[in-house]
Amino acid sequence: MKRFACGWLVLCAWTACDNGTSLSPVVPSAGEPFQADLAREVGLKWSPYVGVQVDGGALRAYEDALSILQRAGQLRGARVEISKNSQTSGDPVIRAVGALGIELLGLIDNEYLFAQDIEQEIDQIFAAYPEIRYFQIGNEITTILPTTGPTITIGEYWTVFQRIYNHVQNRHPGRATLLTQSTLGAGLQGPSELETMASSGLARMDPNKVIVAVNAYDPDAVSQYRGLLSGPLRSFRVWVTESGVADSALHIPYVQERYPLLRNYLRAERVYWYVLWGGDSGSDTDFGLIKSPGNYPRYWKSPLFELLAGAL
Amino acid sequence: MTRTRRALLVLACVMPPLNVLAQQPLQEDSNGGRKSGTYLKTGLAHWQGDIFSRGSLTQWDVDLFGAEYNLTSLNVEIETYFSDTFLKLSGFSIGYRKDAVRHIDSGHMFSGKLFRDVDIKAIALKFGGGIEWGMPSLNFDQTEFEFAGNGTVRYRHTHPDRNADVPFVGTTTDGALYPFVELSVAQRPGFFLIEAGMRINIIGFQFDDYEVSVADKVTHVLSQKRVLVPYLFMNLGLRMF
C-alpha cells in the first residue's frame, strides 16, 4: 500500500505537468505536404500587422519586404513611431510605408507627453499624417523612458491622454481612434497601470473612440488583465501592439502556439509582430522578420517571413 | 492518448482490490462504531469541455477526453470525518487545487466542502457541496473570431465571471467564487483513503459578442449565465489523526 501511495504521488505530478507547452523549432523543409499544411496553419493564425521602425537606411528593404507580405495577403497594417524630428511635413519612411496601401497605426512618441501645448502638437500631427486614423498615445511610458531625462507617472500620463481625447472629440470629431499607451503584458505593473487608467476615466470613455493596447510577449503571463477586461473595460476593444520572440528559429512555432492564446485570453483583435526589422540597439534584433536591410536586395529573411511570403 | 488518459488507465490496472486489504468493514472503527479521523488527501482531476458547443458543459461528450478544453489539476485536501453524523453531515474538508500546473499566475482555487457518506458494503457513497474561490485557470477564456470580407470583425469572448477579489494578488475583482456539488465513492482501509468521483462546478460565465465595423463602430451584446462544469477526480489520502 505504501508503494501504491508513492506511485500515486509520482503519477499525479507527472500527469499534471501535461498542461502547457514550450516552443520548439519547426523545420519547414520536411516535405511539400508538410510545408503546405504548415503554411496554411501559420497563415490562419498569423495576424497581418507588424511594427516598423522608422529608419531611412532600411527603407528600400522595407518597401520590398512589406510589398512581398502584402502580395501574399499577409499584411494589412504597420505600427510606426511618430517622433518630433519628423513631424512638420511627415516622415518620408512613414509616407513610403503608407504609400504601399497598408493601414498605419501612428505611435505618438513618449516625448510628446511632456509638451506644454499637447493639443497643438496633435493638430500638427493630424495635419502631417492625414492618411493615419489610428494614433497610439505613448508606449510603455513608465518603463522605457530613460531615467536621465524626464519621466512620467501613470497619473500624469492619464491627464495628458484625457486632454488629447477631449481635444480630438471637440476639434476633430470622427478623425481618429486613439489607443492607450501599451502596458507591459507580464507581471502586475501593466495591469495595475491599466486599472488606474480605468478608474481615472478610461472606463467612462466612448469604446468607439478608444482601444486598449497591451504589449504581450508571453500569453501565460497576461492573466492579471482578465479581471479588468471582463469588468470595467468589458466594452473596449483590445489590440496587442507588440508580440514575438527573439529567436528566428522559434518565430513559426510562436505564431502557431502563442498567437491563438493571446487572442483567446485578451480577445485581441490584432497582434502586431515586433518587429519587421529592429536595429535601434546597434545589431539586428532576433525579433526581426528581416535582417541586414542595408544589403538590399539580398537582405536576410526569417523562416516565418519566407513561410508567410509563400517562398518556402 | 494524453498523459492523463494513460495515467488513469494505468491506475485502474494497478489499483489493489481494496476489499482484500480491509480487515474489517472499511468505514467502521474497531468497536463497530463509525470510523472518524482526519485525512490528508492528494489527487488528480481532469476537466474537459467545449464552451462554445451548445450544452457541452452540461452534457458530456462521448469521447470523454477529446473535447475542446483539456485541463489537468492537482489537489490537496484536509478532510475530517466526524465520529457521528452532525446535522446529517458526516464531515467537512478544506482544499486547494492547482489547475494547469505550468501556469503560475492563474488556476489557484481554494474550497470548503461539507459532505455526507452512506456505507454500501465495502465502499461509501459520498455526497457533498461547497464553495470554491480563487483565480480561475486561463483555459476557460476562449475567443472565436470571424473576419468578414468587408472588414467587419465579429468575435465572441467567453470567460468565467470575475465576481470576487483575491487580496494581495492582481487587480481587483479578478477572482471567481462559485458553488459546487460532488459525488464520489470512497474506501478507508487502515490508514488510507481512496476516492474517485465527479465534482460539478456551477460557474458563472460571461458570453460577450462584439462586432466592429470597418468604420470602427463597436456593437456588443454582453450576457451571462451559470454553467455546469464537471470534472473527474481520484484522490489518495493518509490518516493524520
Rg estimate of chain B, integer Å? 21 Å
The biggest beta sheet of chain B, please? Answer: 8 strands, antiparallel, barrel
Kindly report the CATH topology of chain A: TIM Barrel
Main sheet of chain A: which strands, in order across? 1-2-3-4-5-7-8-9
Shape of chain B: elongated
Q: Please tell me the CATH architecture of chain B by its name.
A: Beta Barrel
Biggest interface goes to: A-B, 46 and 58 residues
Shape of chain A: globular
Q: Structural class of the secondary elements of chain A?
A: alpha/beta
Strands in their spatial order, largest beta sheet of chain B = 1-2-3-4-5-8-9-10
Mind describing the biggest β-sheet of chain A?
8 strands, parallel, barrel
In the predicted model, the low-confidence regions of chain B spanning at least 5 consecutive residues are 9-24, 53-67
By CATH, the superfamily of chain A comes out as Glycosidases
**Oligomeric nature of the chains:** heterodimer
How many strand units of chain A?
11
Model description:
The complex is a heterodimer of chains A (312) and B (241). With 312 residues, chain A is an alpha/beta fold. Chain A has helices spanning 2-16, 32-45, 59-71, 92-99, 118-128, 154-171, 189-200, 226-229, 251-266, 303-309, and strands at residues 49-52, 77-82, 103-108, 134-137, 177-179, 183-184, 210-215, 237-243, 268-273, 290-291, 300-301. An 8-stranded parallel β-barrel of chain A has the order 1-2-3-4-5-7-8-9. In chain A, strands 10-11 form a two-stranded antiparallel sheet. The longest helix of chain A has 18 residues, at 154-171. With 241 residues, chain B is mainly beta. Chain B contains 2 helices and 10 strands. An 8-stranded antiparallel β-barrel of chain B has the order 1-2-3-4-5-8-9-10. At the A-B interface, helix 1, helix 7, helix 8 and helix 9 of A face helix 1, strand 1, strand 2, strand 6 and strand 7 of B.
